[in-house]
Amino acid sequence: MSDPITRLNAALESRYCIGAETVSTTWVRAFFSCVLALATAACVAPRDAAQQDQAVEADHFVPSRPETVSWGWYPIDKEPVVTIQSGETVRINTLTHAGATQREEPGAYLTGLGIPRDEILQDVLDFWASRDGRPREGRSGHVITGPVYVEGAEPGDMLEVQILDIQTRVPWGINNTSARGGVFSQGYPGFDDDDPELDIAQRRHVIRTGEVDGREVAFFSPDIQVPLAPFMGIVAVAPDPVVGEPGVSVPGVQSSRPPGAFGGNLDVKDLTAGTTVYLPVFHPGALFYVGDPHGAQGDGEVSGTAIEQSLTATFRFVVHKDVSISGPRAENDTHYLIMGIDLDLDRATRHATWEVVDFLVTEKGLSPAKALSLASIAVDFRVSEVVDLTQVVTGFIPKSIFLR
């Protein structure tokens, strides 16, 4: 006779089967972690408002309610969701667009994918109910919380965003795949009509998450666990959009799809807790926005999506007066992260190299020739994302090479 796990897995496959891969294969390991209380695993339940209030100390809290979120763009004239002083901290709830923006009502849609009703955030239901009153022309699909108004920030300043903490809000996420999605899209640079097509139908992969040996993981299948490294795909200040620039087809509306000098949909997976992001300021108060939360992602995000999973993050904001930078950059304990952004991946690499050289000249006192030499022998240039119209290459400068 087969063991209980095998029998239950077979039953789940017969209930939730969607082709060769199943919702149940990603769900079953987490299910056993909870129900059978395996010694190596423990489930993460959705956090209600009271739990989140106690999770991390912060000066301010911003929920992800219909009035505090925007859909697919960064309004410049929206009333701030909170006004803070430089140096203060804010805990911010975010919503994944996966399950919140489709035509079907979220309760029916998500339970149809095998997600229990009590794991669907009320914020998702309320946002979906507010969709009809939101403009769509020129926008994208992300649900974005903000803006945070930082007193004293003015154009020409730099906003320092310290990422203090990021937590999952629900024990599941969704990844999408299709034969013509992500890097296989017909609109992708370099696409050729003769390119072969993957033999797959469009799929929505529900991926359970939970804890194993004190760390959060994604239960991709019974035999595959992916460590969670939650981060915000969108970290942005309000831009100064110009029609004709990437993602700007309507005056005053910057689509959230392409990142730019303002930050935005960078999808740099290294922007996890403990990292600090630096953004140029274009408007009074900086007007900080955050969203597109991810549980885990590989460099490139080649299918077009990561593990799209609602998160809560805590930030500290610091204004640096009269400090000018041309675009987003970041740092963590081990590296400086310098980003190059362009419609073309080759030019994004060129921009990233230029910015690395400029950083080494300005911050480390090297000559341009020495800076380029160091960039070539010690700096790793990684493709961070290639699926959001503009593409991001990040130069990783190791801090350990500098003796002082």
Explain this structure to me?
It is a single chain. The protein has 404 residues and is of the alpha+beta class. It folds into two domains: 276 residues, Jelly Rolls; 69 residues, Acetamidase/Formamidase-like domains (Endonuclease I-creI). The chain is 20% helix and 32% strand. The protein has seven helices and 22 strands. The strands form four sheets. A nine-stranded mixed beta sheet has the order 4-7-18-9-16-19-20-22-21. Strands 5, 6, 8, 14, 15 and 17 form a six-stranded mixed beta sheet that branches. Strands 3, 10, 11, 12 and 13 form a five-stranded antiparallel beta sheet that branches. Strand 21 and strand 22 form a beta hairpin. Helix 1 packs across helix 2 and helix 6 crosses helix 7. The chain is globular. It starts with a helix and ends in a 6-residue tail after the last strand. The N terminus is likely disordered.
Features of the shown structure:
2 domains, nine-stranded mixed β-sheet, alpha+beta, six-stranded mixed β-sheet, 32% strand, 404 residues, Endonuclease I-creI, 22 strands, 7 helices, Jelly Rolls
Summarize the structure.
By secondary structure, the protein is an alpha+beta fold. The chain is built from 7 helices and 22 strands.
CATH fold annotation of the largest domain: Jelly Rolls
Number of domains: 2
Strand order of the largest sheet: 4-7-18-9-16-19-20-22-21
Distance between the termini: 66 Å
Structural class: alpha+beta
Q: What general form does the structure show?
A: globular
> Using only CA atoms, what is the Rg?
21 Å
Taking the sheet with the most strands, its summary is: 9 strands, mixed
| Fraction of helical residues | 10-25%
Strand segment count: 22
